[in-house]
Amino acid sequence: MASTAEDIERVVDRYGDLLYRVCLVTLGSESDAEDAVQDALIRYMRKAPGFSNLEHEKAWLLKVAANRCRDMLRSRRRLVPMETADLSRYAEGPEEGGVLEALMALPEKYRLTLTLHYVEGYSVREIAGMVGRTESAVKMRLQKGRRLLKEAYGKECL
Questions:
Q1: DSSP-derived 3-state class of residue 156
Q2: Domain CATH number, residue 22
Q3: Which domain holds residue 86?
């Protein structure tokens, strides 16, 4: 069952920025992030899954976008780093710009988990459901990601 234009517009208005920030931090490329978001939205249009509530819908979209990012990273031969000065355009507040910049310096496997937890405010349980990992694995990635940030910047970043 396909989604209506009204459904798509609502989803883009509600989740477009969130999906883009997550994909941007994960992929480190504006054009790749745009492609990943577009792919997630196209899948939403084609599948039109039934959701019990808005949180389930958001979690589904984030999982689809995260999976697309992972697929893109696997097929990429080399990472083209984004200029960190450009990140401030995507931050919701001035303090978030520094967090996004710090996240970009981490290995890919920690970026999504840290972004969902610290930038978007999801719980460990919610993240585990979105990324298809156990809560224990999510906690370990958060712990190691915080340690890597502390080592890189000599202080607590998050």
A1: coil
A2: 1.20.140.160
A3: 5-153
Q: Which of 43, 89, 84 has its CA nearest to residue 62?
A: 43
User: Which pTM does this prediction carry?
Assistant: 0.61
Q: Is residue 102 part of a domain?
A: yes
Signed CA dihedral, 87, 90, 95, 100: sign only: negative
Interval 47-57: pLDDT, tens: 867 788 888 88
The DSSP code for 116 is I
CA 94 to chain centre: 19
Dig out the tokens for 152 from the structure.
Answer: 């890189």
Tell me the CB-side half-sphere exposure of residue 18, using CA atoms within 13 A: 22
54's tokens: 């808005």
In a domain, 81, yes or no: yes
